[in-house]
Amino acid sequence: MTSQYAGRRVTVAGLGVSGVPAARALRGLGALVTVVNGSDGERQRAEAAELEALGITVRLGDGATLPEGTELVVTTPGWKPTSPLFEAAAQAGVPVVGDVEVAWRLRAKQDRPAAPWLAVTGTNGKTTTVRMLAAILEAAGLRTAAVGNIGVSLFDVILGEREYDVLAVELSSYQLHWAPSLRAHSATVLNLAPDHLDWHGSMEAYAADKGRVYEGNQVACVYNVADPATEELVRAADVAEGCRAIGFTLGTPGPSQLGLVDDILVDRAFVADRQRQAQELAEVSDLASPAPHNIANALAAAALARAYGVPPAAVRDGLRAFRPEAHRIEHVATVDRVDFVDDSKATNTHAAQASLAAYEPVVWIAGGLAKGATFDELVSASASRLRGAVLIGADRALIRDALARHAPQVPVVDLDRTDTGAMSAAVQAAVGLAEPGDTVLLAPACASMDMFTNYNKRGEAFADAVRALAPGRAAHE
């Protein structure tokens, strides 16, 4: 297993969650590793010191160029394909692959077969779906782990001592772009909406990179019936003979689909007679949230699990056991019959629209860094659900203008401030707009970095502000 890297001069592009484990793994396999990183801050220097203690060379800041003698570049997700480092590699004839590609090549141990990958990608819902999938696989008694873009290094799992039966793998479009050899057991593209277009260059290129997850699938390509673009990606994929297209839908499923019948999740894909039979898997009440996009995520996870042969009871038990991570449709408190829900993870318009669709009436707290997004479609689709809106952040004017065009009847509070204390003011303003039975929903539709370190800190600020309203009267989950 080590022969393909032992003694090779490998350059790893980037530190962080992906780069550090990749550098460590390659060094452990005998490679002569140099890490280059464009940033040169306190965190990067601390990571560099740890790697240098292992015999890894690290170049920060201006040193992020192609080292002489490099035989292979292993990139991490943050580096654009147009980066000068990769242009230099192309000119020198040096191949560039991603950390996921290296992990895929290393997955088979000499003394045991490789664990199959059940892969999940999409614009939104990836982490929730992959964690649901892992919970279902665990309920079936399988040795598994949720890994990849979820923040758990594939290298730590693949090169560790523990054996796994199957892995639930979250993959971003960045990772898929650089993983040409990946061939999953089964995979899903949950949905497609414009995102990261500055990295990919166009929506077409973004979709194509997402679609790579279907290439070479062995058993099932799971697509979203409500998002025809995902089915088109299945049609375009070159898959193994016998691999099936499996749809998931919030409506009544047809043959080779999973869907809903009277609040019951049912399977008409992995049953003996798809034309006349349907297998009950779980009830909507088994899920942590009845939000439509959460049900869709559960159906996608169930489809991948069923493709692997998991019995129906394990789907139900896994979904019952699953609890979403913080800041994803998280009920914070109920104060004076008004619910306060934190969906700070809704960092783009597609995610915010799904979040808004789960509640009515809504006082919407939104705004931040738009990342080039437009908001007309989101506001138009959600206008009838809005009691009011409170806008914060650097690009709030874009949302305010969309509200003026498509929801002029909705009262708007425009907070002209971007300091972290603005969240407390936003919650106070939302209270002034809300009526008993309403939901105050933080679903920003924007990134957080104009005001907060990340979406977690933004969600925490919201929760703190809510809990400060009336500690004695708030009913917490």
Number of strands: 20
Q: List the total number of helices.
A: 17
Could you name the ranges where pLDDT drops below 50 across 5 or more consecutive residues? Answer: 472-477
Strand order of the largest sheet: 7-8-6-9-10-11-12-13-14
Note the main sheet.
9 strands, mixed
Give short descriptive properties of this protein.
disordered C terminus; 6-stranded mixed β-sheet; alpha/beta; 9-stranded mixed β-sheet; 34% helix; globular; 17 helices; 477 residues
Structure report:
The chain starts with 8 loop residues before the first strand and ends in a 10-residue tail after the last helix. The chain is globular, with a radius of gyration of 23 Å. 34% of the residues lie in helices and 19% in strands. It has helices spanning 16-28, 42-52, 84-92, 99-106, 126-139, 154-158, 173-177, 197-200, 203-211, 228-236, 292-307, 312-321, 349-356, 376-382, 396-406, 422-433, 455-467, and strands at residues 9-13, 32-37, 57-60, 72-75, 96-98, 117-121, 146-148, 167-170, 186-189, 220-224, 244-248, 257-261, 264-267, 279-283, 330-335, 338-342, 362-366, 386-391, 412-414, 439-442. The strands form three sheets. It has a nine-stranded mixed β-sheet, sandwiched between helices. Strands 15-16-20-17-18-19 form a six-stranded mixed β-sheet, with helices on both faces. The protein has a five-stranded parallel β-sheet with strand order 3-2-1-4-5, sandwiched between helices. The longest helix is centred in the middle third of the chain and has 16 residues, at 292-307. β18 (386-391), α15 and β19 form a beta-alpha-beta unit. α5 (126-139) packs across α11. It is α/β, with parallel strands linked by helices and 477 residues long.
